[in-house]
Each structure stands twice: as C-alpha cells, then as structure tokens.
Input
Amino acid sequence: MKDPVRTKKSLLIFAIVLVVMITSAFTVSRIWHSAIPWADEWDTMEQGPYVAAMYVEGVIQEYNVTDLGLAYGYQHDWTLDAIDELMLDPENKGLILYIDSPGGGVYESDELYLKLKEYQDTTGRPYYAVMGSMAASGGYYISAPADQIYANRNTW
Output
C-alpha cells in the first residue's frame, strides 16, 4: 500500500524542481538576449547575397512520414515552396542541391525537375547538383538540368 504522506512529499519535490527549471530557463533566455544585442533581430537581419543549399535525401515522394506521423527525409511540398521563395529573393545567387536518393515517384520527380528548370529559366541563376552515394532514377533525373553535376566515382 502506498504511503499518502510520502506521495505528497514526492509531488511537492517534483513541483519545486519543475519551478526551478522553468525559472532557470527564463533567466538563461534573458541573459542570452542581453548579452547578444542582435539576438532579438536575428530573423529580420539582412544577410546579403548567398547561394542556397538544399537536400534531397531519401525517396522522392509526396510524404515521408514515420508510423507516428513524424516527417523525415525529403519533403516534396516544402522543397517546391522553398524553391519558389528562392526565385523571389533577389539576394539568392544560385542553388546547390545535394542528392542522395534511390529515386521515387515519377510524378514527384518530374514536378521537382520542372521546378528546377523554372528556377533556372526565370532567374538566370545557376543550379548545381551534388550527388551523394546514390542518385538513381528520379535522383538522376532531377540532376539533369543542372549547370554542373558533381559526383564521386562510386556514386550509384
């Protein structure tokens, strides 16, 4: 049988530890923001010209999710939206796409291929494909429009 006094003491200790942890987190956050003057402005800072690096890792398909519904690997809609944003960003000067994929869906691979062509045609900026250990099927296809393709001699 459980001792009610012991249970109350355990809950009280747990509550005290939880309050201390939360207070510490707020204190560290305040110290961080006061020690680094630009911490609050990080998202709004102008970064200047850049070349974007994106990754296509895993199967090229509409959704890559675990049994618990958590996203992993290549995310098709996000990738297409990110390329759209790059096309609108005048600070973007090019795109490097790292590809490590066995391929995937014909529709999704073609849609990404067309989006990469659109990026090149509308912006006039270069697109470079860097192949990882595998760039098969759809991975090879999305590499085709690149201005330059880099691959190891052992890349599949």
Observations:
- Confidence is low (pLDDT under 50) at residues 32-36.
